[in-house]
Amino acid sequence: MTLLAHELRLLLRQRLTVAALALLSALTVASLGAGLAEVARQRAAIAAIPAAQAEDIGAVAGFVDATKDAGSAAYYSFHPTWDAPAPLAFAALGMRDVSPYIMRVRALGLEAQVWDGDTFNPELALPGRFDFAFVLVFLAPLFTIALFHDLHSGEREAGRERTLNALPGSSALWRRRTGLRLLLLWAALALPFVIAAAVEGVAVGTILLVVLLIAAYLLFWTEQAALVSRLRWSSVANAATLAAAWLVLVLVIPTLANVGINAALPVNQGAEIAMAQREAVNRAWDVPREDTMRRFYAHHPEWADSAPLGPAFHYKWYLAFHQNGDESVADRVRAYRGGLEARDAAGRALGWVLPSVGVQGLLTRLARTDLQAQLAYQDRIRAFHQRLRTFYYGYLFRDRPFAKADFARAPRFGDRPDG
Amino acid sequence: MSAATLIARDELRLLRRNRVAVIAVALLVLLTLTAVATSWAHRRGIEALRERQQHGAEAAFEAQPDRHPHRVVHYGTFVFRPLGPLAAFDPGVDAFTGNSMFLEGHRQNSANFGDVRQSSLLVRFGQLTPAFVLQVVAPLLLIFLGYGALARERERGTLGLLMLQGVSRGSLVRGKFLALGAVATIAGLPAMLGFVAVAGQPGAPALPMAVIAAGYLAYLAVWVVVVLLVSALVRRSRDALLALVAIWAVTAVLLPRVAPDVAGAAVPLRNRFQTDVAVARDLRRMGDSHNPDDPHYAKFKRDVLARYGVARVEDLPVNFKGVQSVESERLSSELFDRYSGESYRDQERQIALVGAAGVVSPTVAIRSLSMAAAGTDFAGHRRFLDQAERYRYALVQRLNRMQADDVSYADDTAVDAGADRRKRVSATNWQAMPDFAFAAPTGAVLARAALPGLGIVMGWLAVVVLLLTLATRRLGETR
Predict the structure, then answer these.
(1) In which band, very low, low, confident or very high, does the pLDDT at A59 lie, cut at 50, 70 and 90?
(2) 3-state secondary structure of B360
(3) What would the pLDDT profile of A80-103 be if each residue is shown by its tens digit?
(4) In chain A, at which end, N or C, are there fewer CB atoms within 10 A of the end residue's CB?
(5) DSSP assigned state of B316
């Protein structure tokens, strides 16, 4: 223990080391603060939904009540959905800045709604967020390099290496020095993280996993330093080589791989879904309405006993062709989604060989801020939208009046786990 | 041959003998060429795809059968943002904004299907473009090759020897600058070659390209000078390297991320949900078309009747439903413009805050210069949004007027079996509608937008040159 304390004293006597550790802690704390603030902002935005929604739906209820027309209620009522940030989201904001986490839907064609985005400033999103994941993946390796590049070469250049190696227990000395540096780096990252995670109520198992992930990632960079140090170059050459390795592993390969993946796995553009759906929906005005209803009833026999259409406009026909429109592009949607998932899987696969990508992927997965989380939110929107349809169809296809009190009976997002 | 040239030659000879240096430069050149090739192919691919989709959307619009004009208001149309030729150099926010937009009546839709939501997580690691290579990677190369330029001479005691031989401090530093500057030129050249290929494209604007070239030249010069400055000030070359890598990590990697985060927190944006609710609220206040006794629409109706000197809407020479649609579209569009204008202003304030960070990070400055000149910044996206909205409004109002003029009120309100047929107007009308044509900004507009960034980069250059001049005077003094 005294030996370790001695090493610690030696280490902390180096200005560079102390400055590096202090800076890393400060950056970690700042990134956690930024992440927490962003998550708090998102929670506040979600908490502000009910008041605004009540006002909006109240106005709709006001004018629909005059006609008691369920179709108008379905047409004019927007229902909010939201994707609350997971406890760990503050540490890895992932896609939450470019994908919507609040979305209003109505019982019309979903494919014309579900791909909409929220307002965000693209120039702010472009460089990526300053979150804990960034500090860990991008910056922590640079600090590891700063602390490890002269572990051996520094002693050699000071003319002490031979003496040190000749001492009994010299390998324990190097282990101690390596372990100590690693521990300090790890503490600078992990301790602030654990505090923030505890405050946010992250599950203990998840915290443990992240803390281990931090250690493993630091260990990887320590290994790189050890490998380079075997070449017995000067401290300067070590530092340059390690920084170059950082550049390649953290910046160059991921960007190259991104180009490669997007070229190798073409995704049929999402805009084509929107266009095809619009074509299918609007065609209904130009074909006999009975054809539309026949097709709809074939897929949804539970409503087939509804009264036949009269000459006047009826919203059940309108909603039926919207649903037909959605169903006509279901294959395209599946293919599009499959393409997105294939690209995501390819990116993740790279994570198995490239620790920077692996750490980022794992953190965003644990934080539920990755593409899978976005798609899961979309699935919940789809399930909720289905409930909305069923709800309004119950009035429309049975010709039941839709009174003011019925607005309160509409399904609410989040009162079921699947949306 | 002057002393400075001799020093430069010597330094370059040394670099040529350094195998690691040669490999590093070669790798950078290779990386840039890859970036040039992929960006080029990417832009070409996107351009072709969007053009095809735009034509598809136009063809679909024109192929509509006879329809009621209001159906066409809802059928709407799709527009796709074209990508300027300089996007091959710096695609900017292209991947982060939706690039297709559905235009319809009564609604202002978001631009959807941006690449950022269609790519793997790797897209957030950055994009391999010539601009990225020059902004981030090239400075690190200059650091690796130049950190020892002066520190080494002092460390080894050769600095004193050179001075004894009558080499002035000034010519020594100038010589090192020439050598490192030559490396910077070699590093920047492949990206500029890609530029020349872009210049061969039709419609490539010369002025912004000149600004970009000047900007990157100055940017790399800033780094060359900073490298020499630190190398002159720091006692040991190892410390020079670590200090330079730290400076690079802070200015090229950290600040470009921190500045937007700070700006985003300082100027929060109203989200879409709150905007939609607010628009609906304001619309109700201005005039509720669902309310038969609404004062605004009641007055509007009286005015229309008075204008035509009739007592009943049935007696109007135009279809009152169409006239009313024109009015309600006017009201709602005014609101859309107000709310989107507020949002754009907020986003521009955010960007101005980030731009101010250029004072502490030249990378932030060159980034905004580069995107602005390439027309791929937020302002470029906004140009598209504004033009799309203008087109949407004109299209919808044309259709509404068509409803007013070409569909009679009696037919429009009829519900008999043949009414549907009588309400429709001829399909030839759809072909007569003008297509969306994005008016690309002129070179002068782009170049002017890039001037603030260029100013900051030039300011950086002036400051660091001044600092290097001061440091040169004290070079070799024992402290």
Answers:
(1) very high
(2) coil
(3) 999 999 999 999 999 999 999 999
(4) N
(5) -
Mean pLDDT of B117-142: 90
Give φ, ψ of B102 to 5 degrees. -95, 120
What letter would DSSP give residue B107? B
The tokens 């279809």 sit on which residue? B319
* Alpha carbons B107 and B99: distance in angstroms, whole number: 18
The reply to whether A286 touches chain B by the CB within 8 Å rule is: yes
- The 10s digit of each residue's pLDDT in A215-231 is 999 999 999 999 998 88
Radius of gyration of chain A from its Cα atoms, rounded to whole angstroms: 29
Which comes out higher in pLDDT, residue B103 or B37? B103
pLDDT of residue B479: 47
If we measure between CA atoms, which residue out of B276, B218, B236 comes closest to residue B154?
A: B236
Instruction: Name residues 230-289 of chain B within 8 A of A (Cβ).
Output: 237-239, 241-242, 245-246, 249, 253-254, 256-258, 260-261, 263-265, 268-277, 280-281, 284, 288
Residue A216 three-state SS: helix
- Asked if residue A185 has pLDDT above 80, the reply is yes
**Backbone dihedral region for residue B109 (phi beyond 0: left; psi -120 to 50: alpha; all else: beta):** beta
Chain B residue at shortest CA distance from A141 = B249
ipTM: 0.91
Q: Which has more pLDDT, A233 or A269? A: A233
pLDDT at position B2, please? 83
Which residue from B123, B274, B347 is facing A121, i.e. has the nearest CB? Answer: B347
Give B323's Cβ-side CA count (13 Å radius). Answer: 19
Q: How many CB atoms lie within 10 A of CB B162?
A: 18
In B, which residues are within 8 Å of A251 by CB distance?
A: 125-126, 136-137
Quick one: which H or E segment has residue A103?
strand A102-105
List, for residues B291-316, the tens digit of each pLDDT value.
Answer: 767 888 889 999 999 999 999 999 99
Best of A120, A236, A341 to disrupt the B interface by mutation (most B CBs within 10 Å)?
Answer: A236
* Helix and strand numbers, DSSP H then E, in chain B: 20, 3
Nearest by CB to residue B125, choosing from A130, A254, A370, is A254
Tokens of A389: 């349809």
- Cβ distance A63 to B281 less than 8 Å, yes or no, reads no
Interchain pair B120, A371: CB under 8 A: yes
Contact list, A34 vs chain B (CB under 8 Å):
261, 265
Q: Cβ of A159 under 8 Å from any chain B Cβ?
A: no
pLDDT in tens, B130-170: 999 999 999 999 998 899 899 888 888 888 888 888 888 99
B347-365 pLDDT, tens per residue? 999 999 999 999 999 999 9
